C-alpha cells in the first residue's frame, strides 16, 4: 500500500521505517525537501539529522507535503501539533479527501518551558480541529499516547500487553486503523473511544505522560486499561 | 486514628465505611447536618439517601465541615470539585493547618451536559488551587483517577495490579499517604508524580476516564502503568 506520512521527526521516521519493512511504499512529506536534507540535528529526533536517517532508509521517498499526501492511499499526520493545521493546508484539501488520516499529533505548547501545556484542550482538541478543517478526510486519532518507538513495536513493553486508543467519526476508517494497529504494528488492546470529540481524552493525558516520563526515567512505558472480569471476581 | 472526611457523596461514603472497618474514628463533614439527614436520594450516590447509608453505618460521626475538620488528624477532601474551595473555607483554615489533606476531588463541570469538561486544567489544577488557598495544609492529590468502590478495594479489578498516583509538595505527607494507600487500602502500585502541579496530569485524565466508562460499560476499571523491564527485554 502507498502511505503518506506528513512530518519528518521521530514519529514520522519510526512509522516510515516500520511500514517500509512491512513492504509498503512510504512517502514522507515535508515543507521543503532541500531544506530538510540540508538541516543539521533537530531536537526530538535523537540528534540525528534527517539526511543521515534517510541514508539508512533510502527507499523511503521524500516529497513536499502535497505530493506525499497525493501519493498516499492512507495518510498519517506526524507533524508537531502546533503546526499540524498549517502542514495539512499545504498538503491540500483535495489530497486528503476521502482518505483515512491517522492523526498522531499532540497540541503541545513548549513556549512556557517544561512541562509543556496544551494549545487546545477540555472543550476542543486538535483531532476535532483537523476534522472540522478537512471535513472530507476520514480522521482517526490514534497512537498519540505513547513514545514513537513503542508505537511501532509495542512488544518492547510488558510483552505488548497495553493499550492504544482510536477516536473518529467514521466507523469504517476506525476498523481499518484498528486492523493496521493490530496486524501491522502488533497492538493487542485497541479501544475505540467513540467519535472524534473523544480525542480530547487522549490528548489530555499528555501532561500525565510527561510527568511519568520523568518518574520512570524513560519514554518506554504505556497505560494499560484493566477492568473487572468475571475471572477476577471474588468467589 | 481520627479521620475527617469532607463530603458525604459516594466517595466520602466509600472511604468512611472502609476506614471504620479498619478501626478508625471517622467524622464525615457536611454543610448542614440536619439537611443532609433529611435529604432524599442524591445523584451519584447510587440512589441511597445519606440517612439510609448512615443507618447501616451508625458509628460514622456526622458533623458540620468545621467540626469534622477539627476532629480529623488526617483530612480527606471528598466534596464535588466545583464546591471544594467553598467547603474547605467552611472547614476553616486553622482546622486544616499542619494536617495532611488528601484531595480526591475532580473539577468536573457538568453545566454543559455530558461528557463533563473541567473547570480548571492545563496551566492550573484544583489541587494547586487548594494548596494555594490553604498554604499550611499538606495537600496530597490522590485517588482521583478511579471509581469510589475501587479506591477502597483495588482487588476488585485485575487482582489489584493497577496504579494510583500521588502529587504534593510535602514529601513526608506523600510518604504517609502512600503508606495509607498501600497498607490500609491495599494498593500495590503507588506512583509519586512530583509536586502539586502534577495534579494537572491526573485531573486531566478524567475526560478519558469518562469515555472509558461508556466503552467498558462500568466504572470498575483503572489504568496500570506498564514500563520497560529487563525481564521483558528481547534477548
Task: Report what the structure shows.
The structure is a homodimer of 235-residue chains. In chain A, strand 9, helix 9 (171-184) and strand 10 (189-194) form a beta-alpha-beta unit. In chain A, helix 4 packs across helix 5. The first copy, chain A, has an eight-stranded mixed sheet, sandwiched between helices. Chain A has eleven helices and eleven strands. Chain A has a single domain (2-232), classed as Rossmann fold (3-Layer(aba) Sandwich), CATH 3.40.50. Chain A has helices at residues 10-21, 33-38, 50-56, 65-71, 84-91, 93-96, 126-133, 148-151, 171-184, 199-203, 206-216; strands at 2-6, 25-30, 61-64, 74-77, 100-103, 108-109, 117-118, 138-142, 163-168, 189-194, 221-227. The first copy, chain A, has 235 residues and is α/β, with parallel strands linked by helices. In chain A, 37% of the residues lie in helices and 22% in strands. Chains A and B meet through strand 7, strand 10, helix 10, helix 11 and strand 11 of A and strand 7, strand 10, helix 10, helix 11 and strand 11 of B.
Amino acid at each position: 500500500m502507498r502511505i503518506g506520512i506528513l512530518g519528518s521527526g521521530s514519529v514520522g521516521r519510526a512509522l516510515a521505517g516500520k511500514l517500509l519493512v512491512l513492504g509498503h511504499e512510504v512517502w514522507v512529506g515535508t515543507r521543503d525537501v532541500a531544506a530538510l536534507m540540508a538541516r543539521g540535528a533537530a531536537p526530538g529526533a535523537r540528534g540525528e539529522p534527517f539526511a543521515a536517517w534517510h541514508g539508512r532508509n533510502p527507499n523511503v521517498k521524500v516529497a513536499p507535503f502535497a505530493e506525499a499526501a497525493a501519493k498516499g492511499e492512507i495518510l498519517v499526520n506526524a507533524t508537531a501539533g502546533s503546526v499540524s493545521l498549517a502542514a495539512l493546508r499545504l498538503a491540500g484539501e483535495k489530497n486528503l479527501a476521502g482518505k483515512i488520516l491517522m492523526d498522531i499529533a499532540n497540541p503541545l505548547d513548549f513556549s512556557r518551558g517544561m512541562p509543556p501545556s496544551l494549545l487546545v484542550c477540555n472543550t476542543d482538541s486538535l483531532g476535532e480541529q483537523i476534522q472540522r478543517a478537512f471535513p472530507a478526510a476520514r480522521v482517526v486519532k490514534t497512537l498519540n499516547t505513547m513514545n514513537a518507538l513503542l508505537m511501532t513495536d509495542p512488544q518492547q513493553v510488558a510483552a505488548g500487553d497495553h493499550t492504544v486508543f482510536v477516536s473518529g467519526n467514521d466507523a469504517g476508517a476506525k476498523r481499518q486503523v484498528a486492523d493496521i494497529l493490530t496486524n501491522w504494528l502488533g497492538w493487542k488492546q485497541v479501544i475505540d473511544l467513540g467519535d472524534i470529540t473523544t480525542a480530547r481524552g487522549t490528548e489530555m493525558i499528555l501532561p500525565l505522560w510527561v510527568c511519568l516520563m520523568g518518574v520512570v526515567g524513560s519514554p518506554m512505558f504505556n497505560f494499560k486499561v484493566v477492568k473487572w472480569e468475571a475471572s477476577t471476581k471474588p468467589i
